[in-house]
Write a structure and sequence with these properties.
Blueprint (H helix, E strand, L loop, with lengths): L36 H22 L6 H7 L3 H32 L4 H16 L2 H9 L1 H4 L2 E5 L5 E6 H4 L2 H26 L3 H9 L4 H31 L11 H12 L2 H30 L11 H24 L3
Antiparallel strand pairs: 1-2
Helix pairs in contact: 2-12, 3-4, 3-8, 3-10, 3-11, 4-8, 5-8, 8-10, 9-10, 10-12, 11-12
């Protein structure tokens, strides 16, 4: 008499085990994520404080939001905004052009060029920007005339500084020279961040110095230069407001002219503030995409864009809701 193995008692030693069926769905242990009560409490308090601040700003009649809307797109304000944008772009372009030159001089093997570059950066970083602007504005008191010619010899071309350095040119020159000192250090730091082995490997392949700098050094250095350069760009945008002391009709000076006539100081300052926030937001978004562009090859996966991050969060939330719905609909 033979007995089928699948009906043998499981307690007999040496006998094969009986095949077991998988547990029912109601026998599965449900995994519950850990509750972060402190995180939710702090988020609730932060949102409550933020709501109170926003409510105090919106419902405060002293801000005179109707006046803000009235002057927000007036020609005087828009002209000041355009001048601010132009001055920011020109200062950044010229500042980094001059700063790159001084950075290369600082990294040169020539001691004279290194000393001149170091001295320039030292002087312009040690002097307040307002002092530099006032100095250039009063340059005519120190040098009534400027000329081109042979040192200690005859001059071939002379012109009066009073006719040359107006308020606009003074602002451009002062901001550019100040920006170039910081840009020189930013570029120098970016170049030094590239491993020396990259240059040695390129030299072993017989590449020219210009090609090594353009195709190898600069693309890798941009990963370190772009974040700091983006901060400098935003700082320059806001720093151009200091030229209002020279009566340059930038955005701040334009709203000052209006509220000096209407005595509506707070709403006109809010006009300038909102425009600065809008432009800064656009520049910050551009900086993010430029950093993402130069991150290629440095990371296995590029950082997601804000829209991509939002899509992932929505997809994760939808999946979580579907899982919860399916668990509630399952038979008990």
């Amino acid at each position: 008499m033979t007995v089928s193995p699948d009906v043998l008692p499981a307690s007999e030693p040496g006998s094969p085990r009986r095949a077991t069926s998988p547990p029912e769905s109601d026998e599965l242990t449900r995994i519950v994520p850990r509750r972060h009560l402190g995180r939710w409490l702090s988020a609730t308090v932060a949102l409550l404080v933020l709501a109170m601040v926003v409510n105090s700003v919106i419902r405060n009649e002293r801000f005179q939001w109707s006046v803000v809307g009235e002057y927000f797109t007036t020609p005087a304000v828009l002209d000041g905004l355009l001048l601010t944008l132009w001055l920011t772009a020109a200062v950044m372009a010229l500042g980094f052009l001059i700063g790159t030159l001084f950075a290369v001089m600082r990294l040169s093997a020539n001691p004279v060029l290194r000393t001149i570059s170091w001295g320039y950066v030292w002087i312009f970083r040690s002097t307040p920007l307002l002092v530099q602007l006032l100095f250039w504005f009063n340059i005519g008191a120190l040098y009534p005339t400027l000329g081109l010619g042979i040192p200690f010899g005859p001059e071939f071309l002379t012109f009066k500084t009073v006719n040359l350095f107006g308020a606009g040119l003074t602002a451009l020159v002062g901001l550019t020279l100040h920006e170039a000192a910081y840009a020189a250090e930013v570029v120098r730091g970016g170049i030094l961040s590239v491993d020396a082995g990259q240059t040695e490997a390129a030299a072993s392949l017989g590449l020219s110095r210009w090609r090594v700098l353009r195709r190898i050094i600069v693309p890798q250095a941009m990963r370190s230069i772009v974040p700091t350069a983006g901060n400098m760009l935003i700082g320059t945008l806001k720093g151009t407001s200091i030229v209002s002391v020279l009566a340059v009709q930038d955005l701040l000076f334009s709203v000052q002219l209006v509220y000096n006539r209407t005595y509506q100081v707070i709403p006109l300052l809010m006009v300038a503030t909102i425009w600065y926030i809008i432009v800064t937001t656009v520049l910050s978004a551009g900086q993010f995409y430029v950093e993402r562009y130069y991150a290629r090859g440095a990371a296995r996966e590029l950082p997601p864009t804000p829209l991509g991050r939002l899509r992932r969060q929505v997809a994760a939330l939808s999946a979580r809701l579907r899982t919860a719905t399916a668990a509630d609909a399952a038979p008990r």
